[in-house]
Design a protein that fits this description.
heterodimer; A: 201 residues; alpha/beta; B: mainly alpha
Amino acid sequence: MGKPLKANEVVENLTLLADWLRVKYPGEHFELIVAGGAAMTLEGFKGQTTDIDLLSPKELPDSLKKGVAHVGRAKRLGAEWLNTNLAKMLSTSARSVKLPEYFSEISRTLELSDNLKISLICRQALISLKLYSTTASYRKHTEDLSNLRPNKREITEALRFVMSIDDSDPRKDDLRIVMKDLGFDFDEIHHSLAKKGKPRR
Amino acid sequence: MKSITALQKKANPAVKGAWVALGIPFDAPMIDEKVEGIIDVEALIMTTLLLMGQDRMATDLPAWLSRFSGLVNHQKLKTMFKTMPGQQRSGILEKLNYSPFRGAPKSIRNIFSLEPASEAVSRLVQMRVRKLNTIENVVQGSIMIRNRLQYGTGFRADIIALTHVKGFGMRGTQLARVLCTNDSTVSRILGDLRVCRFLDQDNERIGAVESYPGMFISSQSLWNLCEMIDAARFSSQQLKRGALENLNLRHDGLDMKVLKCEY
């Protein structure tokens, strides 16, 4: 677990990464799509994050891997302060599922330097991914989701996404508890989804 | 390190001093290998090319290579050049294309894919050859050159040279990395040297030998210099500091000296 990073520290660390890449890989340009807690922190939905989750690239190229290691050492950050765990998780768990189109929507782009651009995933994708990550026993993601203050339409879409990947009974039990905490009735929304049609696979 | 020019300025006297030991008459105090450490010939050549400016080095290095090309391990030189980071390699090539270094012998030019120099430049380089120290004096200053004359210009001679460094830790992989060759070559040579009882089972020399304190210039010096050049290019002080803190100075007296000048 890395040390918590505030929004300005996320930007500062990525700017250091850009500086490292500029010197070591001159002329190359890098684009990252940021999701998870880092995107929430940069959008002002939470105060700090422990790491920067990427949705793209799915696998860090060698240049980025080396840069992440160097910046991590220079700033004494955890080894995975910037990682593709989320992208990997999506490509394994949701292998047979076509991601909804809004996953390619970008809410904001930050040009941190001439060689590094970061884009933040859109609000709906943030909510859907957070609902997918929540469990009844681990409050962190539920709190993040609560900070996003999703409305019923957004939570319904998020539930559709989660059910498309995993509609097992244990998952439904978890979601029932989490959604109740957030002020939503899982069964009502799930029922309405079922009426509209089976979850997209 | 504040800039690349500052780095060149700090490293140049020691690099020139190393060349004095190998026979180029620079106005710099000679590096005494028995005090400062062993000078790896190919690492010195590559370090020189990396730092070379528009001074006498540009004519005297090809002159030295003309005179002593038979004592240069071409394979090692080639591996060092190919293993360097791309931008440093391009920087060297750009420099050499417009330098009297093209007056070096064909076998050396081939490593860098260089065209031959003009006749005038070749003549100038040949004139500088006459200024070099005699081979008899060079063998007094360089254990690697001496060993190459004894055992042939190959990795065997260099490995035997490194057996003079007490506590070098003659592990095959480490030696292979320092000498820019592969593990199998090193382990074959170490095996031979153990069989003829030149080395013991721990790869240490049997019997009393003249002792050297370490390596003054090795391939590690070259990699460290590349890192230091990059460090000078970082805008962030944290990255600069991080890069310098991560240098491996174990077989690198040169950069230790350069860093001491800095701080």
